[in-house]
């Protein structure tokens, strides 16, 4: 009986260790080197390339160096030709090797232990960008019910919660709901994405949106089609301003792989 009990306890402990290793891995998730805390070694954390000025005042895309001394409020060619519905968008960093790995471990492998790593990055970004989002209400870009049921959690909500905490802003998760289950957009062009996402969102309670400044939060900005559609619905229902924040920004030539 004691031998059997010992085997059971041993199995439980081994299972617990596996859970801990899954949530808090002992090696850097990028280079497999040893870590001191969270998910990244110091070298990989330092390799995350934050997006800094100069960038487009509206969509936040980094300025092409061909621009002659771009000023703080310059607007890129895409925004001049076809302005977005949101007022401003900003992203923490380029969606390349390190940041992409963090987001993938969080989004597709359900490793909630990545959240403390995100906290460090968010604090650093907003320390460098003081005043961002002040007076706004933070709200995530919602998942469709079926996708959230399959994934088991809403990654945009968790990121939005972290952003609200760091910025000390109110969080309102229920401003929008996703009423249309859209097709995967990874291989779509900007035009195809816009068509795919059209009509995907509705406002839950218009009285909570009217006159409000909303900071929409998502994980990655690729073409901006999703956040643009969400912003359009919020503006249609009376939102005074809509800003966007994402962790990653896909920029051609930055190794996004998309």
Structure description:
The structure is a single chain. This protein is of the alpha/beta class and 258 residues long. The chain has two domains: 47 residues, no CATH class; 200 residues, Rossmann fold (3-Layer(aba) Sandwich), CATH 3.40.50.2020. 40% of the residues lie in helices and 14% in strands. It has ten helices and six strands, in the order H-H-H-E-H-H-E-H-H-E-H-E-H-E-H-E. The strands form two sheets. It has a four-stranded parallel beta sheet. A two-stranded antiparallel ribbon has the order 3-4. Strand 5, helix 10 and strand 6 form a beta-alpha-beta unit. Helix 4 packs across helix 5 and helix 5 packs across helix 7. The radius of gyration is 20 Å and the shape is globular. The model has no long low-confidence stretch (mean pLDDT 85).
In terms of quaternary structure, the protein is single chain
| CATH level 3 topology of the largest domain | Rossmann fold
At CATH's second level, what is the architecture of the largest domain? 3-Layer(aba) Sandwich
Mean pLDDT across residues: 85
Largest sheet: 4 strands, parallel
Straight-line N-to-C gap: 57 Å
User: In angstroms, what is the radius of gyration?
Assistant: 20 Å
Task: Describe this protein with a few key phrases.
single chain; 258 residues; alpha/beta; Rossmann fold; 2 domains; four-stranded parallel beta sheet; 6 strands; 40% helix; 14% strand
């Amino acid at each position: 009986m004691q031998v059997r009990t010992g085997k059971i306890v041993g199995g439980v402990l081994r299972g617990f260790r596996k859970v801990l290793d899954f949530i808090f891995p002992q090696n850097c998730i990028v280079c497999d080197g040893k870590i001191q805390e969270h998910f990244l070694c110091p070298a990989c954390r330092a390799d995350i390339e934050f997006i800094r000025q100069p960038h487009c005042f509206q969509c936040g895309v980094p300025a092409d160096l061909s621009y002659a001394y771009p000023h703080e409020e310059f607007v890129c060619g895409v925004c001049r030709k076809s302005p977005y519905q949101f007022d401003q968008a900003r992203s923490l960093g380029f969606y390349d090797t390190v940041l992409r790995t963090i987001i993938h471990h969080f989004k597709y492998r359900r490793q909630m232990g990545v959240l403390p790593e995100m906290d460090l990055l968010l604090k650093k970004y907003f320390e460098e960008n003081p005043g961002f989002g002040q007076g706004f209400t933070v709200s995530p870009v919602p998942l469709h019910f079926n996708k959230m049921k399959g994934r088991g959690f809403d990654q945009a909500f968790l990121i939005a919660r972290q952003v609200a905490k760091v910025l000390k802003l109110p969080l309102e998760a229920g401003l929008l709901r996703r009423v249309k289950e859209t097709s995967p957009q990874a291989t779509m062009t900007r035009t195809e994405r816009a068509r795919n996402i059209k009509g995907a969102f509705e406002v839950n309670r218009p009285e909570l949106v009217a006159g409000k400044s909303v900071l929409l939060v998502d994980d990655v900005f690729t073409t901006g089609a999703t956040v643009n559609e969400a912003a359009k619905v919020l503006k249609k229902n009376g939102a005074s301003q809509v800003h966007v924040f994402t962790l990653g920004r896909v920029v051609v030539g930055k190794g996004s792989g998309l």
